[in-house]
C-alpha cells in the first residue's frame, strides 16, 4: 500500500482527494494537515466522509509526512515550494496541485503569481503532470506539477490540432467556463450563492494566471509561438469546466478521425461521435475529459468542445492518475467512478 | 455473478441502477428493456455511462428476462404487476422500484393509484424492502416492494420514536422536501428548469400517494393507528430529500441515545451527533440516510431531520441493497460510494 | 417629496431599498452612508442601479441625515439603537430594518441578541411595523421596528386563525424555508455558492432569533401564551420565504372564508383560491404575501402556506409601505412591481 | 391610450409582455388570445399577475384584434405571417416577436425555418426592430420584426466595430450563452430542471437559426460579407444572455471611446467603464444591454462582452420599446424597471 499524506485538506481539492483516496485499493491515507483545524476529524468538516474516513487533521509537525511515499499539496500557491525540497530529500514523491511548479520560465511565473520563487532548480526538475503528453516522464519523476483545471481542458482540446499542424497558430481562442468550486472554498463576496447563482459573467479578461500555463503548453505542442486569447467565465454550477475552442483550419483533414486516433489509447479522454455536444454533468465526479470537434457550416473554422470536472480530471483525479503512474499501478486504479447524472 | 435484468431503463431510477450495477463486483448486467428505444446503446441516452456500460436497450421479447436471476422494474406504476407472476414462475426474483406492491390494503392502493390491481395475491406475498425493518423477511423473499423515496426518509426518522412508544401518535407531522429528480424524467411544464429553478412551493397538500404508504409503516411501528399529516414540497435541486418531522414527546427519555442504539448496527443509517443539521449534499450519490434529533428550547416537541438521496437510498441504492440481501452478499457490496461534496 | 436617508447601504436590504426608492414618485434619495465605501457611487457596487441612482456612499458625518424626513437603517443589529435618539430629537422619522426595536421585552432581546440595549425607553415607544396589524399606530409613529422576514410570513399565516380562536395554541409548528439572500451579503463559508447550491438543510433548530419575535406576535393575536416550534431551513434560491404552518383545529369553521375576510382590504396580502399552492417566484421582487389554507384529507389539521420575497414584503418593501403610511401617502405608492416570473 | 392585443400569451415572451404592459401608462391591454386556454384568467396561469392583470385568454375570433392599435405576436414561428396582412389591412400595427419577418432573403428564411413563407412581400416591407440601428424607419413602420435574443446581444456588441471598419471581417466569433427561458415553455426533456440544472453544454454548433439573422445584420453594418462563427450554449439560469465576441483589430483606435460615442444617446445600451465585466443579473428584468470592450494583454484581439435579459431587451422589452417609437411616445415609457439584484 502506498502511504499517502495530504498537506492542506480544508479546500475542495483536499476533500476531493479524500473522497477518491478513501476507496483507492492501493493507497493508504496516513496524514492530512491543517494547522488551523488540527485535531478535528475531517468528517466533521466534510460530512460526506462520515463512516469512510476516520482521519483527523494534524499539524505539519505531527503528521510524519517524511514517512509517506507520496505527499499531495492541496494548498494555496506558494506553499509547496517551501516544503518540497525536504520531502524530496527524504525520498518522498511530491504531487503539487497548486501552481508552484507548472511554469518553466520562472520569471513569467513570478510576474503572474506576484512572489519570488523559492526553488527555481526544482521547477526545472518538475514534470508537468498531463499524462496524455508526458506519461513517460511522469513514470520516472519525483516531483509532479499537476496541471490547472482550465489548462487541462484547453490543452487536451487543442493538442491534436497543434501536434498535426493543421490550424493557424495566429489566432487561437479559448472561451472557457468554470463552475464556482474552481474559485475555492475561501469566503469571498463574489462567490456567495446570492451573487453567483442565477448569474453569469466573464472575469479576468485582461489576464488570468492560467493563460501563461496554457500558452506554454500550446507552444510546446506547436513547436512555435502561438497567439492565444483566453477568456474565463464563472458558471452558476458547482463542478464542471466547458472550454469552447476556436481556430482557423490551415490544412484539409478529417478532424474527427484526427481526434479519435490521437486519443485511441487514452482511458481518460473520450472523443464523442461527430456532431455531439458534451455536457459538464456527463463527467460530474468522474476522471474524464470528453471532447467533440465541429466544423460549422463547412467553413474553415474548427470548434472544439471540451469538458471536465474541474475537481477531478482538473485537479484531484488527475493527481491520483499521476500517483498511479508514478508507482507503477494501473493508471485507472481507484478512478472508475461513473459520472453522477442527473 | 448475479444475472441482472432491468425493465424500463430510460428514467432516472433506471440510469441510477446502471451507474451502481456497472461497478457492482457481484452482478452482471444482462438486459435493459425499452420498447421505444430498442437498439440504442444506453450510453447514447446517458453519456455518463460511456465507456462503462456497453449494453443497448432491447425489446422485452428479446431481453431474455426469464434467464436472469433478478429483474428490477424501474417502470411507471402499474407495469410490474402485469409481468411479475411470469418472472416469479420462472424462478426469477423481482424487485419493483414502483409502487405496485407497497401497500398491503389493495383497496387503498386502488383508490390512490386509480387502477385495478392485477395480482392482489402477490401483494400479500411481497416483502416491503426497508432492510432496517424487514431484513429477515427480505432474505427469504422472491418479490420485493422497494419503498418510495419520501417513505424511506420519513419512516426511518419516526421509527425509533414509535417503536419506543415515546411520542403522542395523535399529531405526527412530516414536512418533506424533494429535489426535482423525484418527479421523474417525463417532460412536463411544472418541472422545466425555468419553472422549478429559483422557486419553491408545496404540492399535493390535499393528498399524496406516499401518504398511505408512510401511514401504513408508521402504524406498523406504533402498533396502532396514527394521525399523520404529510406535506411534500419541490426543492430547486436535483437530488435529495429532507424530511423535517414533528411530534409531541409523551415520555421523558434520552432521544439521542434512543436513535444511536436503534441504528447502531445499520450500515446505511447514520445518526449525527447531538445538535447537528444534516445536509442533502452529504448523501449525494451515496446509499445512506443521515438523521439528527432535536428538542428545541427544552420544549416537549421532538424535531427529527432526515436526509437521503432520493435516487439512491430512496430508490436504486436501496434496491441494490435489497438484491445483496436476497442473494446473501455483503449488504454494502457495490454501495461504497462516498457522497459527492461539493 | 419626502427626503430619504439610508444608513448602511452595502447589504441586500440596502440595494433593495435603492431599487424601490429610485422609482418612488413621492420620495427623494438624499444620502446613503457607508463609512467603508465613502465616495464610491452605489451603482459601482450594484451595477443594476447604473443610470438609475447617481448617489455615492457618504460618511455618516457628511450625510446630513438630520435634514432628512425619514431615515432607514439597513444595518447590522445594534447600530440603529445607537443613532436613533438623535434623529428623533431632530424630528426625523426612523424605520429600522434590523431587530433593535422589535421585541418589547428588553431582557428577552438582550438574551437573544447578546448585547445590552442602548435605549429601552425607545423600544417601548417603537411601533412594530406590520401594517396588517398595526396600521393605525404606524400612522402616528415616529419610530418603526420593521418586522423580520420569517416573522412577516409566519405571523400573516397564523393571524386569522389565532384572532378567531379556532386552533389549539398548544402545538403550533412553523416549518420555514428561506432563500440565501436572507443570510446577508457578508462573506461566510456556509453561504458560498459551492456550499449552498444543490443543497438543503435546516439550521438553528435549537433556537433562532426570529422565534421570540414571532412568539410575541402570536401571543398578541391569541391573547394568551402559545407553544410554538420554529424550524428554519436554507433554500438553494436567492429570494423567497415559504412558511408551512401546522396546527390542530379546535372549532369547525370555513377556513377559506376566514382568511378571505380577514385580508379582504389588504392590498399586500393575497389569499389564493382553495386548493392552491403559492410559489415563491410569484412574489419575486413584489411586495406581497400570498397565502393558501388547507385541511388535508378532512382531518382536524390546518396547513397554511405563506410566501413572501424576503427582501421586499420581508424587508425593504414593507419598510417603504411603512413610510407611505407614516407620511399619509397611498400605501401602495412605488410598490406596484409585478413579480418577475419566470 | 394605445389599445393592445397579444396573440399567443401562454409562453414566456407573452407573460413578460403582460408584466411590462400591465404598468405601462400609455397602453391598455384589450385582448390576449389562446385558443387552448380560452376563458382562463391569465393570472391563473401566471400567478405573479394576480391583482395586476384581470384579463382572461380569449379565442382569436372573440378577441377583436382588428379593433386594437397594435398587436404583438408572441407565437411560434410561422403564425404571424398567416395573420398579419388582415391586421395591417385593418389599420393595426403589428410587432412580431417571432422570426417570420426578420430575414430579408426569403429563400434563406425558408431553408432555416423549414417552411414556405406565406407573404414574402410583407417581409420586404417589415422593419427590423433594432432601434439602435433603425429608429427612423421604425417611426414610420406598420410592421416590425422584433429581433431575436442572441441577435440583439451580438449585433449591439459588434456594431461599433463594424461601422467603424476597425476589425478584420474574415474571422468573427460569437460565443453566446443563454438562460433556459430562451428555449421557451414547451415541455421538452432537455430543458427539465434535472437535465439543465448544474449542467452546461453547447448546442446547435452545426447551425442555429439566429446565425443567418445575425450575419445579415453584421454584413449590413460592415457593408460587405463577413465570416461569422456562432456557438450558442445553454446556461443553468433562467434569464440572461452573455455574448463573448472575438475579432482581430485592423486599425489602431481607442476602443472604449468608440463604444462610448456610438451609444452616447442610447438609453438602453450601457457601455461600462474600461476593464469591466458585465453580469447577466445586472439586467435581470430590465430593458438594457450592458457592454464592455477589452483588448487582452495588449494583443490585437478585441473581446466584447455583451449582456441582456433575453426576455426583455431580447424580446418583450424591445417590443414595447418599438411600440413606444411607433406611437411617438417617450422611448422609455413603461421601461424604467431597475434590474433585480440579487
Order of helices and strands of chain A: EHEHEEHEHHEHEHEHEHEEHEEEH
Separation of the first and last Cα atoms of chain A: 34 Å
What is the CATH domain class of the largest domain in chain A?
Alpha Beta
The CATH superfamily of the largest domain in chain A is known as: Dihydrodipicolinate Reductase, domain 2
Number of structural units classed as domains of chain A: 2
Q: What oligomeric state is this?
A: homotetramer
Greatest contact pair? A-D, 48 and 48 residues
Total number of strands of chain A: 14
Number of helices of chain A: 11
Form type of chain A:
globular
**Which CATH-level-2 architecture of the largest domain in chain A?**
2-Layer Sandwich
Biggest sheet overview of chain A: 7 strands, parallel
Structure description:
The structure is a homotetramer of 342-residue chains. The first copy, chain A, has helices at 12-21, 42-45, 80-89, 106-113, 120-125, 131-139, 149-164, 193-196, 210-222, 255-262, 312-326; strands spanning 2-7, 27-33, 57-58, 70-73, 93-96, 127-128, 143-145, 172-178, 201-202, 228-234, 241-248, 269-271, 289-294, 301-308. By secondary structure, the first copy, chain A, is of the alpha/beta class. Chain A folds into 2 domains: 2-125, Rossmann fold; 150-310, Dihydrodipicolinate Reductase, domain 2 (2-Layer Sandwich), CATH 3.30.360. In chain A, helix 1 (12-21) links the parallel strand 1 (2-7) and strand 2. Chain A is globular and about 60 Å long. The relative contact order of chain A is 0.15. The model of chain A has no long low-confidence stretch (mean pLDDT 97). The B-D interface holds B 12, 179-181, 183, 185, 187-189, 191-198, 236-238 and D 12, 179-181, 183, 185, 187-189, 191-198, 236-238.
Amino acid at each position: 500500500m502506498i502511504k499517502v499524506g495530504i498537506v492542506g485538506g480544508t479546500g475542495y481539492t483536499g476533500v476531493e482527494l479524500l473522497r477518491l483516496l478513501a476507496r483507492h485499493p492501493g493507497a493508504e491515507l496516513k496524514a492530512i494537515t491543517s494547522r488551523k483545524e488540527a485535531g478535528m476529524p475531517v468528517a466533521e468538516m466534510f460530512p460526506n466522509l462520515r463512516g469512510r474516513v476516520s482521519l483527523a487533521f494534524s499539524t505539519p509537525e505531527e503528521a510524519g509526512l517524511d514517512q509517506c511515499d507520496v505527499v499531495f499539496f492541496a494548498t494555496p500557491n506558494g506553499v509547496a515550494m517551501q516544503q518540497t525540497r525536504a520531502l524530496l530529500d527524504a525520498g518522498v514523491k511530491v504531487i503539487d496541485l497548486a501552481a508552484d511548479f507548472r511554469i518553466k520560465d520562472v520569471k513569467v511565473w513570478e510576474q503572474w503569481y506576484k512572489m519570488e520563487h523559492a526553488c527555481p532548480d526544482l521547477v526545472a526538475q518538475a514534470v508537468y503532470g498531463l499524462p496524455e503528453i508526458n506519461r513517460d516522464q511522469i513514470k520516472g519523476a519525483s516531483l509532479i506539477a499537476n496541471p490547472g483545471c482550465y489548462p487541462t481542458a484547453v490543452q487536451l482540446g487543442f493538442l491534436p490540432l497543434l501536434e498535426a499542424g493543421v490550424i493557424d497558430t495566429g489566432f487561437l481562442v479559448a472561451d472557457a467556463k468554470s463552475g464556482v468550486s474552481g474559485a475555492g472554498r475561501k469566503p469571498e463576496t463574489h462567490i456567495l450563492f446570492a451573487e453567483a447563482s442565477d448569474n453569469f459573467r466573464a472575469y479576468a479578461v485582461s489576464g488570468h494566471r492560467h493563460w501563461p500555463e496554457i500558452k506554454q503548453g500550446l507552444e510546446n505542442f506547436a513547436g512555435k509561438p502561438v497567439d492565444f486569447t483566453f477568456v474565463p467565465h464563472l458558471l452558476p454550477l458547482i463542478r464542471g469546466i466547458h472550454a469552447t475552442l476556436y481556430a482557423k483550419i490551415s490544412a484539409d483533414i478529417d478532424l474527427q478521425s484526427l481526434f479519435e486516433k490521437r486519443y485511441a489509447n487514452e482511458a481518460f479522454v473520450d472523443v464523442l461521435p461527430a456532431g455531439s455536444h458534451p455536457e459538464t454533468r456527463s463527467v460530474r465526479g468522474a476522471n474524464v475529459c470528453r471532447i467533440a470537434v465541429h466544423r460549422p457550416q463547412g467553413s474553415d473554422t474548427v470548434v472544439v468542445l471540451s469538458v471536465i470536472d474541474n475537481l477531478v480530471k482538473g485537479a484531484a483525479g488527475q493527481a491520483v492518475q499521476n500517483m498511479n503512474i508514478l508507482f507503477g499501478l494501473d493508471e485507472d486504479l481507484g478512478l472508475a467512478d461513473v459520472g453522477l447524472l442527473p
